[in-house]
User: What shape does this take?
Amino acid sequence: MILASVKKLRSFGIIGMNQRNFGLVSKYNPRHLYPLVDDKLKTKLLAQEAGINVPQLLGTLRFQHDVKQLKEMLEPHEQFVIKPVAGSGGKGILVISEHDHNFYYKPSGAALRLHNIERHVSNILSGLHSLGGKPDAVMIESLIQLDPVFSDYSYEGIPDLRIIVLKGYPIMAMLRLTTHTSDGKANLHQGAVGVGIDIGTGAALHAVQFGNPVSRHPDTRKIFSELTIPHWDKLLPLAAACYEMTGLGYLGVDIVLDRDQGPMIIELNARPGLAIQVANCAGLLPRVAVIEALSNLTPDPQARADFCKENFSTTLRMLPPRKHRTRATDRTKK
Assistant: This one.
């Protein structure tokens, strides 16, 4: 693998970790506001107060002795998601898509018993998946129902949309599609596919899995070039409004599309990762420069979204995949 030089990456407008930390996170995110997004329960309450849809909260657990309440808490629900309140990067999230008597089934079909879930919850409470390894709490949410538009683009799980918002302006977007490898989780490090999304139209631009370009979903074989996000005109203003909701100037907004309830905020991140640049095959730096050069920032989320659609759209679309050559053809060419 050939690594690009720092100079070459800068010419592409790629922002690195140090530049993100000091030029964006430290510059635009006051530390006293971090708990609003690092604590998922606080984020949920903030969103509800702002009138933004979020998954239903089914229950919370805060102490090890609460684990004994788990059976009674889960009994009424066939589907649910267990999350660390202070988790990051998708770690510790357990998705249960079916509950049948003494068995709980993951989207992959793997079966768990109650004692497996109790151990998982106990690990979360002990801080196994939390930021800094500190003792954590557990939240149990309703399971999002897959929007039919994604039925051929996601496997064994629910995709989510990550939108980077700078000073209230949604500047870059990426769809994260679950795969068998990612165990039904929309986490790029675990094998989900990242699809760069055109800010102007919601159309797919480019896709990667484990940092490598892909043109089809690895499980369903559906071509990404045919994908366009529905409700795009609603999603950008929704992400933009999270600036007023949190006061954070550099923010990662994670949104899901529920089949029955439409767009929902599932998480906000004060330190969003940089893989979105790889998925978009474009750097954040030029877009950051456009926003930082603005002398007047409009207080209207819709107007900010419209500005970004006009300034950061591209006509680039993914090319259809090349046809696989047969071995016979290969031998003929040799």
